[in-house]
Amino acid sequence: MWAIAQRFLLSDGSAPRPGAPLRPGVLRGGRHIGNLTRILERNRITPRRYTPQSLADALQRLIEAGKLRSPRYEELRDPLAHFAWTLRRLNELTEGETTLERIRREDVERAEKRRQAALQELPTPEEQAAAYEAAQAFFASTRRLRKPIARERRTDVVELVTAVLGRGIRLYDAPAATQELVGDLTAMHKQLTADGWQLITGDAALIWTRDSEQAVEVTLSPALPHTVTAVTSQLDPGTPLAVVVDLIHERHATRGN
């Protein structure tokens, strides 16, 4: 309202501060702002159809087309009355939607087209079901290919450490050489069990078997610090597991063995 009054030189001074009470005579000629409100409502000048600038543009187009004359001097003495006549002529000469209404309608139509295009790109229920089945099949095959982790592996490690150190001896109390031996044996044990081997412990001996076909046996000296007195392996020489077993012998075997 105030923007239109100022845009068309109808206001008497600046617009009031927000929340300040309206005073009579805020329009030129001592008119109250309510007069402008009634004129705008009567001629369907609403924020839905016009902004102050689009209203000025519409009036200018009518003047340039010769459908609306410029005001005469005597008409400028009552600018509000002339403005009311101008809006009445605009309303009579305007057919269909205004420029602002057309722009907003086209914006809505473009948004709807974008929404429809996005919906078309979404997979159909059949495609979603096929993708779900493919994902389920993929994860199922992955689970089958993944080697199972033996639940007793942690128990096996404890059993291995106890067999090397003896009961009641903590690893950090053992000699450094024995701690290194336990570390290497544990690393070898994990590789063997990951390949399906099982550990059997005896007196000063660790034996790994698989399907009763092959065996890896490490014999230890009876007292701390432990050393490896013998390593027996039926693994094919040069295989990764055979290399690990040979490393135990090289690093921890008693000299002469």
Stretches where pLDDT falls below 50 for ≥5 residues? Answer: none
Report the total helices: 9
* H-E order: HHHHHHHHEEEEH
Fraction of residues in helices? 40-55%
Structural class: alpha+beta
Number of E-type strands: 4
* Rg result: 47 Å
What proportion strand? 5-15%
Q: How far is the first residue's CA from the last residue's CA? A: 106 Å
Strand order in the largest sheet: 1-2-3-4
| Mean pLDDT reading | 79
Descriptive notes:
This protein has 257 residues and is α+β, with helices and mostly antiparallel strands. The chain contains 9 helices and 4 strands. The protein has helices at 2-7, 33-42, 52-64, 79-93, 99-121, 125-145, 153-165, 176-194, 240-252, and strands spanning 198-202, 205-210, 214-220, 228-233. A 4-stranded antiparallel beta sheet has the order 1-2-3-4, covered by helices on one side. It is rod-shaped and about 125 Å long.
Question: Short summary of the structure?
Answer:
With 257 residues, the chain is α+β, with helices and mostly antiparallel strands. The protein contains nine helices and four strands.
What are the main properties of this structure?
4 strands; 52% helix; four-stranded antiparallel sheet; alpha+beta; rod-shaped
